[in-house]
Every structure is written in structure tokens, then in C-alpha cells.
Amino acid sequence: MSSTKTIWLHPQAPMKPELGQSCNGCGVCCAAEPCPVARVFLWQYRGACRALIWNADHMRYQCGMLIQPAYYLRWLPLAWQYRFSQMINRWIAAGIGCDSDAEVAIAPSSEPGPS
Ligand code: SF4
Ligand code: SF4
Known about the structure:
With about 120 residues, the chain is an alpha+beta fold. The chain has a domain at about 30-90. The protein has five helices and two strands. It has helices at about 30, 35-40, 65, 70, 80-90, and strands at about 50-55, 60-65. The chain has a two-stranded antiparallel ribbon with strand order 1-2. The longest helix has 11 residues, at about 80-90. The chain is globular and about 45 Å long. About 15% of the residues are buried. It binds iron/sulfur cluster (2 copies).
């Protein structure tokens, strides 16, 4: 069953690639719904994941649970952060390829154009 939902992304975010192509950090999947990592560790079950971070330098989204998990998990000692990130990396299969079959349509801007 397909469904439609509205998500908000940075205007300079890259376009979502096709399913199976390299992940380019478009952020579509994580803005649409939390992944199992977010459900288990952040207790977030709907909406855009709160660990989704826009990286302006690299013009792409990144997973905050991957790069700074201790920021989100106050119980996680900083010394364990690296090992925990490795575990998250395997869990979300980061860098493997796009596993989202979402189809993206860009809504027309609601901003008034130049007159
Ligand atoms: S935890 Fe990371 S991979 Fe999972 S939805 Fe959030 S930002 Fe995306
Ligand atoms: S897995 Fe796909 S939808 Fe998710 S950020 Fe990467 S390219 Fe975008």
C-alpha cells in the first residue's frame, strides 16, 4: 500500500537517487520516518528523525546517531562513542546504498515570487 506524506528538507539537499544507488545523503528516508535505530534508542516512532543533521560543508544530511551518539544518549560514556558508532554503522548499513523506495515530488514553493 502506498501513502503520501509531506517532508521538509534543506533546499540545497541533493535529489534522492534511485533505490540501490549510492546514498548521497539526501535525507528523504530519515525525514519520512525514523529507522529502527531511532525507534530503539531515541524512542521516536514517527515524523522526521531528530538525529538527522544537515551538514552545510558537505551539502548533505548525516545521521547524528552515527557521528555523535553521546549527544543523543546521555547515558553513553564518551569513551564508548566510537564503538557504539561502529555498531550503528553496521545496523543502518551506512554507505551501502539507498534502501528507500520512496518517490519524491517537489511541491511548488508557497513563497510569493518576484513581481
Ligand atoms: S537514527 Fe540516523 S539513520 Fe536512523 S532515521 Fe535517524 S538520522 Fe536516519
Ligand atoms: S538511503 Fe537513500 S533516501 Fe536515505 S539518505 Fe541515503 S540516498 Fe537519501
